[in-house]
Amino acid sequence: MSLSCDLSVLEELTSNAKQIQDDVLTKILKANANTEYLSRFLEGSSEKELFKKNVPVVSYEDVKPYIDRVANGEPSDILSGKPITAFFRSTGTSSGEKKIFPANDNFEDILLGLALSSLIMSKHVDGYKQGKVMIFKFIQPISTTPCGLPLAPSITIIMKSKNYRSPGKRSTTPDEIIMCTDPKQSMYCQLLCGLVQRDEVVSVGALFASVLVQIIRILEKYWKELCSNIRSGRLSDWITDHCCRDSVSIILGEPNPELADLIENECGQESWQGIVSRLWPKTKCVETIVTGIMAQYIPALEFYSDKLPIVSSIYGSSETFFGLNVNPLCKPQHVSYTFLPNMSYFEFIHVDADGEATGEIVDLVDVKLGAYYEPLVTNYSGSLYRCRVGDVLHVTGFYNNAPQFRFVRRKNTVLSIFVESTTEEDVLKALDRATVVLESSDLMLTGFTCFGDVSTVPGHYVFYLELKAKVNNDTNVLLLDEKVLVEYCCVMEESLSSFYRSLRRKDGPIGPLEVRVVQQGTFDSLMEFFILSRLKFVFVHLLACCGLDTKLDTISPSSYISKRIPVWLV
């Protein structure tokens, strides 16, 4: 299918979802039925019924030995009928373990999905086509597997592929800057290019909300230096990447003291509320993923953008591209994604509200409104056949014949001390409800991590919070009110599940929830550590249960504990 498309393509795909899904499975099976993996179950057949009857539902751990064999140099036809040309490296957000997935060099379906997303934005956001987008993108250095094939996050592999089409003049940032593998230099140069072209920017964003908040924090740190560059027309000497220097110099142009003064005036104000709207006055929306664990950044983004619409456009992973948000201006809490039937063959395991499987597996078009499911993926690259993704989705509607899903959470439990299971969704709901307490003291949450501390008796939940005052002060010292933070602990506990609250009874098996406030800049420092370690810095704020508690304790000067037992008899 051509990448030169209009929204009639979306109508065609979603109207013919069943036929397209059947065609996708047939195509995948014809290409891969004779692979070592599938031939055991299909004996060369491409029949859908045989596939569903004989091919087992698996997890990544089940297929990892096969993937590792290919990565170590054995033939592609262990898994795929087509040559495997690269490996995607996942971010490892669910379990902390980074996974690798074989890929071939055909990314047209993914790029079509991105093109459709852009068309949807143009339809719903006035003036979107007429301006430029300032979407921060970062690639990582490409490493290799033992057999010499490229290994990198999917965005890096795709952007370096022959199929990739640059947004060109629609973007404030030239590709040469995005291709810089030094994230600090790349981020600085992308900010500088965006500031120089401030009057043309209609959209500000990054793939994940955590990245966008981090970029604003970098702007807080470097705005004086950025203004100096604009005032002099000369880029800072510490930017040593030649492609960055050449590209920025063209955009920077001649000295512009008027623009530098304007930016200094905005950034020098006491409060940074609405800084995005003030620096980029024609901005219509903020484009970034705020579903799942990223929902924690919604209050910060609303503060910095003066409540511009926050758009979560796409739902994808290293396993496959899933779908699009066809109602981009909806509230972040109401985001649903319309699955595109041409991306992979999708099946769904029915689960209850807690994410436990009931055993029933249905096709894409047979999911039921209001039900919860975990998706299974059979993808084109031949790396996954009926593989569980680990996400819990809620069916919210249909667009033509294609279902729409709200992302609920990852299946994995985030916290557990006794026999309770506290999920990502539970944690985010508690943080959201406790936000009101912080706002009463003019504070906002800019980052957190958590773990279950079993070194105490009884064990208890510990949350590390990084807080920021909404109004800057000259000393940059955060004034903390013990009553406010203790109340924050109490509201957090009262917002967790009734089962957790029942275990928090007097002399119960779970102790009072504790909040430890880390120093400002702590998560920035962790990000820099992750960058130096060549790890994915996007998720530095999402360090739940990663064994960093001892490091964080050395920079946690303040600790607060819930002082009342939460009510649990509902």
UniProtKB/TrEMBL annotation:
Task: Return the GO cellular component terms, semicolon-separated.
Answer: cytoplasm
* InterPro entries for this protein: GH3, GH3_C, GH3_M
State the UniProt keywords alphabetically.
Answer: Ligase
Coiled coil location: none
For the keyword Protein transport, the answer is no
Q: Which residues form the GH3 C-terminal domain?
A: 425-533
Q: Which residues form the GH3 middle domain?
A: 337-410
A single Gene Ontology molecular function, please?
A: acid-amino acid ligase activity
Q: Name one Pfam family in it.
A: GH3
Q: Which family does it belong to?
A: Belongs to the IAA-amido conjugating enzyme family.
Q: What is this protein called?
A: BnaA09g48100D protein
Q: What is the lineage of its organism?
A: Eukaryota, Viridiplantae, Streptophyta, Embryophyta, Tracheophyta
